[in-house]
Specification:
Elements (H helix, E strand, L loop, with lengths): L27 H7 L10 E4 L2 H9 L3 E4 L4
Parallel strand pairs: 1-2
Length: 70
């Protein structure tokens, strides 16, 4: 996000560290992550680097972008 200068295009950014351990099991991880900013999941975008994460975001009904990680 920093390298591509994308931060300015998002109102809120939530990372794993922002979600309590109890909420970190997919797909709840993604839908619970959207709650603190009071936005519906339809307005969210997930950037995910794992196949399991992409699958979980899809199951949560959130648009997901798969970002391969070395």
């Amino acid at each position: 996000m920093k390298r591509l200068e994308l931060f300015e295009y998002f109102d809120h950014i939530i990372c794993q560290d922002d979600v309590s351990p109890a909420e970190q099991s997919p797909p709840g991880y993604f839908s619970q992550g959207a709650q603190p900013v009071e936005r519906p999941t339809e307005e969210a975008v997930v950037f995910e680097d794992s196949v399991n994460g992409v699958t979980a975001a899809r199951r949560a009904g959130i648009f997901v972008v798969g970002v391969p990680n070395r």
